[in-house]
Design brief:
- Helices cover about 45% and strands about 20% of the residues.
- Helix 11 packs across helix 12.
- About 5% of the residues have low confidence.
C-alpha cells in the first residue's frame, strides 16, 4: 500500500515538474517562411529596402531575400519565370502583361510619384520648344514600361506626331550611356538613372520639367495565391511593408540613409527625389482607372492586341485588408 502511494506521489511530482518546465522554457518559434523578392534598383523600392534593413520581415515570420534587378520589366519577368516569389513593378508593366496572362496578383501599391520619370538630353534644347527639339529625334525608352507610357504622354501633350520621332528600346541601365555615346538624342527614364547620367556626363545635362504629367505607382506583385499558406505569407509581407512605411514617416533620415547605402546614391540626391514620393499602402479604384487608361493608350498605339483585360481580376486586396485592418477601397 505504501509503495503504491509513494509511486503515485512520484508520478504527481514528476508531472508537476514537467508542467512547470514547459511554462518556464522559451517558446518554440515557428520556422520562418523563406521568400525572395525581385527589387527594382530605384528609390521607389524604399519600403522593401527599409523592411529588410530594419528586420521587419523577420518580425513577421518571413526570411526575405532581396534580388536586385534593373527595372520593373525584369522584376516581373523574374516572378513569372519562377526565380522569385514576389516582384516590385509599375502599373504600366502590369497593364502590358495583363493582355497576355492573368496568373498573378497585385497585392498593394506602396509608393506613388508624379515626377520620377523624366526626359533627359544633352544636345537637344528640350527646355524650349519640344516640337523643334524632338524633330527627327531618336529617343531611348524602355519598351512596355512607365518610360514608354510617359514619353507617349509627352508627345500627346505637345501635339507631336509619333512618326516624327524614333523610339529606341534599351534596358534601363543602358540608357545613360546610350545618350552619352550619342546613340540617341534624348532618353525617357526613371531614377536613379537620371542621377547616374548627371554623374557620368562631362557636359551640361537638361531635363524637362514635367512634374504632374504622369503619376506612377509602384506595386507588390505575387503569383496567384492558390493555398492558404501563400495567403498567410503574403499578409505577413504586407504587414512588414506597413511597418516600413510607418518607419519611413517617423524616421525619414534613417530611412533615407538605408536606401542611399543600398542604391549607392548620395544623400543629397536622394533627399531631392524623396520630396516627390508618397509612401502609403493602397489598392483602390484610382489604380484601376490608371490601368484602364493605359490599356486604352496601348491599344490605340498598336502596342497590344485583344480586348481590355479584367484588371479587377488581378487585384487581390485580401492580404492588405487583413494586414492593415482597413476596408478595401475597390468598389
Amino acid at each position: 500500500m505504501k509503495r503504491g502511494l509513494a509511486l503515485v506521489a512520484m508520478i504527481a511530482i514528476a508531472f508537476i515538474g514537467f508542467r512547470a518546465w514547459q511554462q518556464l522554457r522559451p517558446p518554440v518559434s515557428e520556422p520562418l517562411s523563406s521568400l525572395t523578392i525581385a527589387v527594382s534598383l530605384t528609390p521607389l523600392s524604399a519600403p522593401i529596402i527599409v523592411a529588410k534593413e530594419q528586420g521587419l520581415f523577420k518580425k513577421q515570420g518571413i526570411d526575405m531575400t532581396l534580388k536586385p534587378v534593373h527595372g520593373g520589366v525584369k522584376s516581373f519577368q523574374s516572378l513569372m519565370s519562377g526565380e522569385v516569389d514576389l516582384a516590385t513593378t509599375s502599373e504600366t508593366v502590369v497593364m502590358f502583361n495583363s493582355f497576355e496572362r492573368d496568373d498573378f496578383n497585385v497585392l498593394t501599391s506602396f509608393v506613388e510619384s508624379d515626377n520620377d520619370v523624366k526626359l533627359w538630353s544633352i544636345r537637344r534644347e528640350i527646355s524650349g520648344s519640344l516640337v523643334d527639339a524632338l524633330d527627327k529625334a531618336r529617343v531611348g525608352i524602355v519598351a512596355s514600361s512607365a518610360s514608354e507610357y510617359f514619353f507617349d504622354s509627352l508627345l500627346q501633350l505637345h501635339d507631336i506626331p509619333r512618326d516624327q520621332v524614333e523610339k529606341v528600346d534599351y534596358p534601363p541601365e543602358a540608357l545613360p550611356n546610350a545618350l552619352l555615346d550619342e546613340k540617341v538624342d534624348a532618353i525617357a527614364i526613371w531614377e536613379p538613372y537620371g542621377y547616374q547620367l548627371l554623374k557620368q556626363s562631362n557636359q551640361p545635362v537638361q531635363s524637362l520639367d514635367s512634374k504632374g504629367l504622369h503619376s506612377l505607382s509602384f506595386l507588390l506583385v505575387s503569383d496567384r495565391l492558390l493555398v492558404n499558406k501563400q495567403h498567410q505569407d503574403m499578409q505577413r509581407v504586407v504587414s512588414a511593408l506597413d511597418d516600413a512605411v510607418s518607419f519611413i514617416h517617423q524616421h525619414p533620415e534613417r530611412a533615407k540613409a538605408q536606401v542611399s547605402a543600398y542604391l549607392d546614391m548620395s544623400d543629397d540626391k536622394l533627399s531631392w527625389l524623396w520630396q516627390d514620393y508618397l509612401f502609403r499602402l493602397s489598392l483602390n479604384d484610382s489604380l484601376l482607372l490608371r490601368l484602364k487608361n493605359q490599356a486604352r493608350w496601348a491599344q490605340e498605339a498598336g502596342l497590344v492586341e485583344g480586348n481590355t483585360p479584367s484588371f479587377r481580376h488581378i487585384l487581390n486586396p485580401g492580404p492588405l485588408v487583413e494586414a492593415t485592418q482597413k476596408v478595401s477601397l475597390l468598389e
